[in-house]
Amino acid sequence: MEKLPPLAPVPPPAVQRSISHEEWESFLDAWILLLGIRIEASDSVFKDVVSKDESTSGFLSSFYQQLATTNVPELRTGAKARTLRKCCFLLTRRLLLDAPTSPSEMLDWSVLGAMCCCYPSSSALKRLLSEAWDRHHEAITSSLEKAKSLIIKRLSLPNPSVNVEVMSDIRFLTILSSALPPCGQVLMAGSDFIDTLSDAYQSEKRVDFRKVLVANVYVGLTSLLKGAKPNLSLLLDQLFSLKASAGVGTPTAKREPTILSDLICSSDILARLERYLIVHPQKRGEDLLSSLHSYRNESKAFHHRYQKQRKKTDKGKGRVSDLPTVENMHVHRISLVTQVQDLFPDLGSGYIIRLLDHYGDNPETVVAHLLDGSLPPELQELDQSEQLPVSQTTPRHDPLPPRPTPPEIPSPPAPAPARKNIFDTDVDLAELARSADQASQGKLRFGRADSDLTADAILADRRQHAVNKAAIMSALATFDSDDDERDDTYDVADVGGTVDGLTAVTDAEADADIRNRRAEDLDMTLFQAYKANPALFARDSATRRSQPRASLKRETGMTDEAIEGWGVMLARDPKRLARLEDRLAMSAGAPGGALAQPELPPTAYRKPGPREDGESDSDTDQPGSASGGRGGPGQGRGRGGRRGGGGGRARRGGTNAGASGEQNPAVARQKKEENKASRANHNRRQQRARKIARGGGMPG
Length: 700
Hints:
By secondary structure, this protein is mainly alpha-helical. The chain contains 29 helices and no strands. It has helices at about 15, 20-40, 45-50, 55-70, 80-95, 110-120, 125-155, 165-180, 180-190, 190-205, 205-225, 230-245, 260-265, 270-280, 285-300, 330-345, 350-360, 365-370, 375-380, 455-460, 465-480, 490-495, 505-530, 540-545, 545-555, 560-570, 575-590, 665-675, 680-695.
């Protein structure tokens, strides 16, 4: 059978401190090499050799214990330390899952708990522990039972908190139960373990020890609600047991903190239980939850919620040192510090500054007192290695930075970018008059460039004729004499509305115009159908089912109610009927032609008269509704008023309203009172006064 080189266990911290750095690096290399050989071994070699090798399990056990209980940096920091932890995890996984019989040492609760401390919050570790529990739950349960008995025995001692191992073991069980809930269920089985923790809580007043106990109880109770088969009845039994031991609800209950009050005040166990009872309601659990809520309100003064301390970020708001920074210290004082440090190099610069402040910046006096050892007690108690603080701010700008000698010649500035314009491509008529002589460009002249050149010679020169002609034609093509003038020849108002002009309107006006035209076209369509067959607008079921009504609905897109309502409103509005008659008559001769002119409403102002019921607002603007003549509508000159109207005096047996009933008596009376001030004798007197004023004479 093939043999593998044995693995030496990890030495304790006392031995590690005596090992040099180079030797420790060689240890790490050897461990990584030997672990890699075991991890990569074949299945047959692993089953026959590795699983039976005691040095392998001994090394893994010592590695996890040392890494979990000590803060040795050699096992935590560095690339080799990380590689070693990874190799240990892979080999442990293979021993627990692939070996025919896993070493009993690797199934011990202490090794599993230390392993959980080495890989905190690792999902791979939780999966490994779950699979290991499925394969070796009997061995792990037996180990946990031994741990329970050991902790109960140690906590039963008169002073259990003195033993640090008890706290360490309880922490390992807590971490293991958090990563593997079945372990917590094993711890909560029975009442002896939790009763022992409750008694230890009452007998020990140390805060850190109580926190360890409460954390173990919390993890154990919450593990009863996890897994495929939650054990709610056991959880309620344990809470009832803690409630009875605390004397909750009894008149003899003491007002003091208990493990139950600490548990419900500093953790979320009641919230977890409440969420579970919402899904799985139970009368017993709801009553217990209600009583525990009341007990928590009574015990809030003794406890506070356990929360993880957040790491505070350094905002530069610490306590300001009373010593000046090196940058702000005068050069003379720095020289004094160096004089003292030449004789006493072990003293810090900050401590020497304090000595100089005390002795008035006299380095000889400071050195003399240091040699004699006669410093005052307040100076002897200071930290002699204190250094001057270093400024954390950015260095100030130097007004006189070093410059090269001789000074550098500045490079020419880059040319400014040319400004572009939208008119760059336009043809400039002035460019056509420029000479084509390239030699003459860029020169300033007074007068003509060539005094001997005449107009006849220019016209006779045909060399640039084609180019000049093309430039002139291009300029004329781009020039429009009407661009800056308004042509009002075909204005709609001047022509009378017979010519459709293109006016610049907004989108809202165009939409309104389109809607008005659609409404007019719809009215004309309905009116034509109304003129052809008024019975088509009847409000009965036979008409609604008729074929003409269906075709009218398809043509107009209106419902039966809308079509019938349109007919009713048209019958009530004779003025609208007359307008539609006129429009139909005008469009009958030439539809869409010259006779289809828009209706021009009157622009003269007319005082709106009283409206009758059924008249629309637009009816008052028509000529027929305006007040005619003096006295208002329905009134003639003098007393009598118009024939048939009600404007005259009321006779015996008569009525104030006319025969047609067009005028409201109250309105007529009001208008009569209003017209008194501007009619009859009042007007004659005012006119006579105007004539006398124009003549400039006195009345005879």
